[in-house]
Input
Amino acid sequence: MLAGFIVSFEGNELGTFWPLYAGKNVIGRKDAMEGLDIEIDHPTTSSRHAVITATARPGKLTLEDPGSTNGTYLSGERLPNNQPRDLRDGDAVRFGGYSCTVKVI
Output
């Protein structure tokens, strides 16, 4: 079940978006490993960079960094490893140097 999206305008003025489905959404560098739900084509994104866990109805998202090299940031603050944080609609998230916005539905 669809719970939200992440949207980015990095490198594409029309924007790129990825759906977030109920359960774990594993984010990592494009073509770096098997089993990624969201593949980001950016050199500062780790092979397994972050996990967004989503529940639908009501939509709730949490963000966790399992130990990425260049960090995961929520509203400019680097997340400590393995400590999930709640996400809200419109939150700014950065995977290394790749910026996104969270949309909760």
Notes: The chain has no helices and eleven strands. The mean pLDDT is 95. The CA atoms of residues 28 and 49 lie 5 Å apart. The radius of gyration is 12 Å.
